[in-house]
Amino acid sequence: MLLLQSAVPTLWPHFKHLLRQVDVVAVLDIFLVATAIYYLLLLAKGTRAMQLLKGVAILLVVMKSAQWLGLDTLYWVISQALFASALVLVILFQPELRAALDQLGRGRLGILGLRLNPAQREAQHRVADEIARAVEKLSSQRIGALLAIERETGLDDIAGTGTPLGARLSAELLGAIFQPGNPLHDGGAIVRGETVVAAACILPLSGNAELPRSVGTRHRAALGLSEATDAVIVVVSEETGNISVARQRTMTSFIGAKPFADELRALLVQSNDGGAAKLRPFARHLGKTAVSLPRETLGTLRSVIRPRS
């Protein structure tokens, strides 16, 4: 500790000189590019597009290596192949691109940090409780069910494939819909707020080729919708009575109704502080750091950050 304290007066002038040489615009430029690459990888994670990005990265490395080694023919072939395949890749990965753009739009809204009012919070509590009661009963009776809960991404196109209902959500209604003798039981039900919008809807199947054959149609449909939207999809297996929840391209299974009910409430009943809540710990830490810095250091930082005339 004493060695560090004695070294600070010696190193500080060099550090101040380094700060004065920093190009703030260049640092901001690098930060924005790194952030864009990070979110691109985050959006592609768990999709076929991630394998595509790995393949493109390998081709770029090979192309640059060929250019450096003077292998002109190999460099030309790879560069032309990458250019010609751009349009084909956009067509092949259209679902992934649409899902990525949809998530990007939802991320922009999440930064605003909107908060639910008490009435909205109470409504979400009721929705979670009614769905939990219905699913618990369906699971105990081993009655298959598929239920999609709409969030920010609209499900009008999915609801249009089924029978319109527009009925107020209740555990009894959901139980009646999925009874084996009911014409509406075959397919998925769409919930928007406190309303069951439609039933007997056709959900898109997952395009994940790595799913085992034992995964049934209901579970594939739940995963398929979770790959394209931010909906929360609830599945009840008619073979085992197990309850599963699909969201964000992943599926979680629950043994028993109580763990499922707790998870559903955690997903649906949110404070919706969004980006503001995530920024508070960072801002608090930044404030503490600023207070602990010497005044001379703060003055130097201000002179570096202040735009130059």
Care to give the gist of this entry?
About 60% of the residues lie in helices and about 10% in strands.
Query: Which CATH class of the largest domain is shown?
Result: Alpha Beta
Number of strands: 7
Radius of gyration: 27 Å
Largest sheet: 7 strands, mixed
What is the CATH topology descriptor of the largest domain?
Answer: YojJ-like (1
Estimate the global geometry from the Cα principal axes. Answer: extended
Number of individual domains: 2
> Which class of secondary structure composition applies to the elements?
alpha+beta
Which sequence of strands runs across the widest sheet?
A: 2-4-3-1-5-6-7
What proportion of the residues is helical, as a percent range? 55-70%
Specify the number of helices. Answer: 12
CATH architecture of the largest domain: 3-Layer(aba) Sandwich
Could you tell me how far the N terminus lies from the C terminus, measured between alpha carbons in angstroms?
Answer: 41 Å
Order of helices and strands: HHHHHHEHEHEEHEEEHHH
- Note the beta-strand portion: 5-15%
Low-confidence stretches: 108-114, 271-293, 304-309
CATH superfamily of the largest domain: DNA integrity scanning protein, DisA, N-terminal domain
